[in-house]
């Protein structure tokens, strides 16, 4: 019966979305180590069997939550950057947007703290490259192709800049002593400017 089959599919998808929502809420509030499967299924009001129907266990659910968070951050960065007509302004706006998105409540702990610890650095890095880091690398490659960046390899610059921004986001969102966004940008802006090709003494006149 197609109608019944469709209703079951919608119910399964709803259960999955609920598990993701409640898992994300709990992971963000308490951290991966302090969240139990029992707590997740209780919050989602489903059985452990329903959870295992969608995910192999807590690590798999966390990975799905992390993927969702990283995609949201990447989308926010891309939307902000794409609103700027000038290619260099797109890069700087994207960097600022990343710092804002990565330090948002519910993002920092999942994406920058627990993500590498739970999945391992290699797996986390692979996911990061598929989302935010890829946008950064693409932006730098575009600037290099148009001559805005100095003639040097793009990949090392992308990796170094990505690492610097991840560390800056952790510092900004540290609950013990939150960092100063203006201080971060004061340090980051010269790093970005150092990548630019020399424009000559009369470039800004």
From TrEMBL:
The keyword DNA-binding applies. Residues 36-55 bind DNA. Keywords: DNA-binding, Transcription, Transcription regulation. Residues 13-73 form the HTH tetR-type domain. SUPFAM superfamilies: Homeodomain-like. GO terms for molecular function: DNA-binding transcription factor activity; transcription cis-regulatory region binding. InterPro entries: DNA-bd_HTH_TetR-type_CS, Homeodomain-like_sf, HTH-type_TetR-like_transc_reg, HTH_TetR, Rv0078-like_C. Pfam families: TetR_C_41, TetR_N. PANTHER family: HTH-TYPE TRANSCRIPTIONAL REGULATOR BETI, HTH-TYPE TRANSCRIPTIONAL REGULATOR RUTR. This is DNA-binding transcriptional regulator, AcrR family. The lineage of its organism: Bacteria, Bacillati, Actinomycetota, Actinomycetes, Streptosporangiales.
């Amino acid at each position: 019966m197609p109608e019944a089959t469709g209703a079951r599919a919608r119910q399964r998808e709803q259960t999955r979305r609920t598990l993701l929502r409640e898992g994300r809420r709990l992971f963000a509030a308490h951290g991966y180590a302090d969240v139990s499967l029992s707590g997740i299924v209780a919050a989602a009001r489903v059985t452990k069997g329903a959870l295992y129907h969608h995910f192999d266990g807590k690590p798999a659910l966390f990975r799905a939550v992390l993927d969702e968070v990283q995609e949201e951050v990447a989308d926010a960065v891309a939307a902000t950057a794409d609103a700027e007509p000038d290619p260099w302004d797109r890069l700087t706006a994207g960097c600022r947007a990343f710092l804002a998105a990565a330090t948002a409540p519910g993002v920092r702990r999942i994406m920058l703290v627990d993500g590498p610890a739970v999945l391992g650095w290699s797996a986390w890095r692979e996911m990061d490259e598929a989302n935010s880091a890829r946008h950064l690398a693409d932006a730098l490659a575009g600037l290099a192709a148009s001559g805005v960046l100095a003639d040097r390899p793009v990949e090392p610059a992308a990796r170094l800049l990505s690492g610097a921004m991840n560390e800056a986001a952790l510092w900004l969102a540290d609950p013990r002593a939150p960092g100063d966004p203006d201080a971060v940008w004061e340090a980051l802006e010269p790093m970005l400017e150092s990548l630019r090709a020399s424009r000559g003494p009369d470039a800004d006149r």
